[in-house]
Write a structure and sequence with these properties.
heterodimer, A: 516 residues, Cytochrome C Oxidase, Chain A, globular, B: mainly alpha, 2 domains
Chain lengths: 516, 312
């Protein structure tokens, strides 16, 4: 196991190395991020002004659907798995992931799944057009034939996620270096540990709900058809039982990344480590009992509305603990503002804005006004873009020197940050106002009164898109050359990953370190 | 100090295979299988070809994958720590299977206890009954669907006395699901006895009890097929006969598929023991994981028996 990587292209096909697999996940995720971004820009171009200019409504619906699906399952989730692959073994002092071959299988399913999903765009009847939440009966009775391909793509990417999660759990439970007790693990490892449990618990439920769809469409069952005694609302319950934990699958690892970066650049240890662990666990637990807050207007019994409203608002408590801890970590620290820190601070502020609009949406009577408007779109983009995407970006800048041995270009990094920061706020902040004044989501044309907000959003979206090209350029330039990074990279960062050379050798910790 | 060093040695021996062709070919096989299935369902003529070709390829890769893992273990490459990774992996895989069934049980409870009564006009949620489904009354099993009630059609399903539900304790001996329950519970016991024999290195007893478990598994599958044939041919209970048929066939069908897989796993373990002399009292995780899987399908059946049959 002493030697380096195999030669040639088959290295990537046959690899069992967690670093190779992590890199493949990250590149795949970035490719999907660009693809999903192109779909988003088609949407924003159409919405630049009222009226129908660029795409037909049919294609518009396919774009909103594919944008959501590609970003959630193709960009955000694989990026976090990529970071987990690279960092968890190094953070724990393990030689590799616990089940290295299954690790590679988890990755290689994804390109096939997304090739299948994307190919639906070229099929008769077009791609899925029922929104990423694929509510029945839009996704069953009224779906295009390509829905069958969508269902099987979801099945196999779910299998990939479950295997990835099992691998992460086995690694964390079984591969910690001597002395690395659970409460000494970095928070990125902790948040992923909890995320992996969420994945194992809900991806099978997603498989269940698409299986019911498959049988309703092709075998005449009536799960989601009231005529046969079923109920379309049943779809929403099963879907959101998966869907709400899924939302936290896309944010808990982000908490872990930010909890690694802020202490480094505030030059203070993380405030409240154990409360961070317990808060993460509480958020994960609560995520299983709040799903129907996505369905307040569907016609639930009053008791249900109230229960789901209060449970949802309860989530603000552990989330507040986290934000408090990040702010307190920075308090009186000797802070510097390198690119990863800029992205992390923006994460704390903008994610909190997304959290607050979430609280507004949690209030059931008020939600009747906000439901299915751009206010909801603004809310979840504020938690996903400066939440998930910014934390992933911060993590890449933070660990890239360790991965490839070179420092990235700081000026270009900061330019990337400010362009992305301005771009995303221009895009999503006006959506709050458009939504509050009544603009519905998922429409290709709109009333004149929303024109100004939409024009600003569209300009911001293209700016945000341009920023990502800069990111790509910076990463490639860093991999190809640049100033050599030291082994520590930053000033006294905490964690085992900084004790190995930069770039990290192909095999690290073949002999485990002793953690005191 | 010495325990730390022991630990270090253990870690150093963690076996990481250099490179492997298995994952990429497993991915291709899996992809062709689902690509073929989707094409087939959408009526494309080349669908079955991709489906069967992909399935064969997938099965071939899995066969090789398991052979390689078994031979690694026989060569002594697997440290105790690596073996623990397999244990953790199998345990959480079974948990994911539990959650898959939970989705279908959840659907069953929701339509039975909430959606059904609302369709029949109960409470605030039932306001649409007069307009949408006049005449629909909720009963479980749903014999007359809302659509039939609104059109004045009579049920195509026979019953309720002839459906799958509990015929009353006195008649259990003539009730197939009761016998299936008895078979499956017995098979869990025989599987456990086989495990005990293996722990004592009693190969003859192990093969005997494991063989009996496999036979019971096959018996269960035969009876389940018999029940489906009866449901389709004589009772008019099909996938298309409304929500009762949907929940009944998907719950029991996925369970049956898992029993089939579990029986196959146990059969492979039996053949490994009889033909190759695999498994020792100290080293038999292959069998152990198959037996865990078997106990899991047994537990799911108990849930089915209670909620689909007895209180159905």
């Amino acid at each position: 196991m002493a030697h380096g990587p195999a030669k040639g292209f088959t290295r990537w096909l046959y690899t069992t190395n967690h670093k190779d697999i992590g890199s493949m996940y990250l590149w795949f995720s970035f490719a999907m991020f660009l693809l999903g971004g192109v779909f988003a820009l088609v949407i924003r171009a159409e919405l630049f002004e009222p009226g129908l200019q660029i795409v037909e409504p049919e294609l518009f619906n396919q774009m909103t659907t594919m944008h959501g699906l590609v970003m959630v399952f193709g960009a955000v989730m694989p990026a976090f798995v990529g970071l987990a692959n690279w960092m968890i073994p190094m953070m724990l002092g393990a030689p590799d992931m616990a089940l290295p071959r299954m690790n590679n299988w988890s990755f290689w399913i994804l390109p096939f799944a997304f090739a299948m999903m994307t190919s639906t765009l070229f099929m008769e009847g077009g791609a899925p057009n029922f929104g990423w939440t694929f509510y029945a009966p839009l996704s069953t009775t009224y779906a295009p034939p390509s829905v069958t391909f969508f269902i099987f793509a979801v099945h196999i990417m779910g299998a990939s996620s479950i295997m990835g999660a099992i691998n992460i759990i086995a690694t964390i439970m079984n591969m910690r270096a001597p002395g690395m007790t659970y409460m000494k693990m970095p928070l990125f490892v902790w948040t992923w540990f909890i995320t992996a449990y969420l994945l194992i618990a809900v991806m099978p439920v997603l498989a269940g709900v698409v299986t019911m769809m498959l049988f309703d469409i092709h075998f005449g069952t009536s799960f989601f058809d009231a005529a046969g005694g079923g109920d379309p609302v049943l779809f929403q319950h099963v879907f959101w039982f998966f869907g709400h934990p899924e939302v936290y699958i896309m944010i808990l690892p982000a908490f872990g990344i930010v909890s690694a970066i802020i202490p480094t650049f505030a030059r203070k240890p993380l405030f409240g480590y154990s409360s961070m662990v317990y808060a993460t666990a509480s958020i994960a637990f609560l995520s299983f009992v709040v799903w129907a807050h996505h369905m307040f207007t569907v016609g639930m019994p009053l008791a249900g509305e109230l229960a789901f409203m209060y449970m949802t608002m309860l989530i603000a408590v552990p989330t507040g603990v986290k934000v408090f801890n990040w702010v307190t970590t920075m308090f009186k620290g000797s802070m510097t503002f390198e690119t990863p820190m800029l992205f992390s601070i923006a994460f704390v502020i903008l994610f909190s804005i997304g959290g607050f609009s979430g609280l507004m949406l949690a209030i059931a009577p008020a939600d009747f006004q906000y439901h299915d408007t751009y206010f909801v779109v603004a809310h979840f983009h504020y938690v996903l873009v400066p939440g998930a995407i910014f934390s992933i970006t911060a993590g890449v800048y933070y660990w890239l020197p360790k991965w490839c041995g070179n420092m990235y270009n700081e000026t270009m990094g900061k330019t990337h940050f400010w362009t992305a920061f301005i771009g995303l706020n221009l895009t999503f902040f006006p959506m709050h106002f458009a939504g509050l004044s009544g603009m519905p989501r998922r429409i290709p044309d709109y009333n004149m009164m929303f024109a100004d907000w939409n024009m600003i959003s569209s300009v911001g979206a293209f700016l945000f898109g341009a920023a990502q090209i800069l990111f790509l350029f910076n990463v490639i330039a860093t991999i190809r050359g640049g100033k050599k990074a030291t082994d520590e990279v930053w000033e006294n960062p905490e964690g085992l990953e900084w004790t190995v050379a930069s770039p990290a050798p192909y095999h690290t910790f073949s002999k485990p370190p002793q953690v005191s | 100090m010495s325990s730390n060093q022991d630990n270090a040695v253990e870690h150093e021996e963690y076996y990481v295979p250099e490179q492997s062709k298995l994952p990429i070919f497993a991915s291709i096989g899996l992809f062709l299988t689902v690509w073929g299935a989707a094409n087939w369902l959408n009526g494309n003529a080349n669908g079955p070809m991709y489906f069967f070709g992909g399935s064969l390829m997938f099965a071939f890769v899995l066969w090789n994958w398991f052979s390689i893992v078994i031979s690694e273990n026989i060569q002594g490459l697997n440290s105790p720590q690596l073996k623990k990774s397999y244990v953790i992996g199998m345990a959480w895989f079974i948990f994911s299977e539990v959650m898959f069934f939970a989705a279908f049980f959840g659907a069953l409870f929701y339509v039975r206890s909430l959606a059904g009564p609302w369709l029949a006009g109960e409470g605030e949620q039932g306001l649409g009954n007069d307009i949408l489904w006049p005449g629909y009354e909720h009963e479980w099993p749903v014999m007359t669907t809302p659509d039939m009630a609104a059109n004045g059609d009579s049920a195509t399903m026979r019953g309720p006395e002839q459906n799958m539900s509990n015929p009353g304790l006195a008649n259990w001996l003539g009730w197939l699901p009761f016998w299936n329950t008895a078979i499956l519970l017995t098979s869990s016991v025989t599987c456990h006895i086989a495990h005990g024999a293996l722990k004592k290195d009693n190969r003859r007893q192990f093969n005997l009890w494991l063989g009996l478990t496999v036979l019971l598994g096959i018996g269960f599958i035969i009876l389940q097929i018999e029940e489906y044939v009866h449901a389709y041919n004589e009772m008019g209970l099909t996938l298309e006969s409304g929500i009762y048929g949907a929940t009944f066939f998907l719950l029991t069908g996925f369970h049956g598929a898992h029993v089939t897989l579990g029986t196959f796993m146990l059969l492979v373990m039996l053949l490994r023991s009889v033909l190759k002399g695999h498994f020792k009292s100290s080293d038999h995780f292959g069998f152990e994981s198959a037996s865990w899987y078997w106990h899991f399908v047994d537990v799911v059946w108990v849930g089915l028996f209670l909620y689909v049959y007895v209180f159905g």
